[in-house]
Design brief:
The chain has no helices and 17 strands. It has about 140 residues and is mainly β. A 6-stranded mixed β-sheet has the order 3-6-11-14-16-17, with no helix packed on it. It has a 5-stranded parallel β-sheet with strand order 1-4-7-12-15, with no helix packed on it.
């Protein structure tokens, strides 16, 4: 976990082993949970959201859901994951993407809204580790 990360109710954020959460990330556990698998890399200033508003609601009602992130997922710089999303094992979310729908395992998605642009190698076995430059 790097400096400058923000947790909105960290009691609902469950991180797996060997995760790297880069600087400036926002993890929103206000009402719903965030679950990450193992060896997940979340790039700088990425946002994982679980709660928003229903734009069709006359009363501006809340709308949201859990976010589930599988093992070996890579979420790149300034990506946004919206509420209720599942990102499958080994998937990659490109920098600046806005994830509005579930992402299939080992898919590479990009854009706003994020769409599939490729497939990732399914033979992943690395373990992430973070060795800080400054201690």
């Amino acid at each position: 976990m790097q400096m400058g990360c923000k947790f909105l109710n960290g009691r609902r954020v469950y991180l797996g082993n060997n995760n790297v959460i880069n600087f400036g990330c926002l993890l929103d556990g206000r009402h719903y949970n965030i679950h990450t698998g193992n060896n997940v890399s979340i790039g700088p200033e990425a946002s994982i959201l679980t709660l928003g508003h229903d734009p069709h609601s006359a009363s501006f009602a809340n709308r949201g859901g859990d976010v589930i992130i599988g093992d070996y997922v890579w979420i790149a710089y300034r990506a946004i994951v919206l509420p209720g999303i599942t990102i499958g094992e080994g998937a990659v979310v490109a920098a600046g993407s806005v994830v509005t729908k579930d992402v299939a395992p080992y898919s590479i998605v990009a854009g706003s809204p994020a769409v599939k642009v490729g497939e990732r190698n399914k033979d992943l076995s690395y373990q992430l580790s973070f060795n800080p430059f400054l201690i």
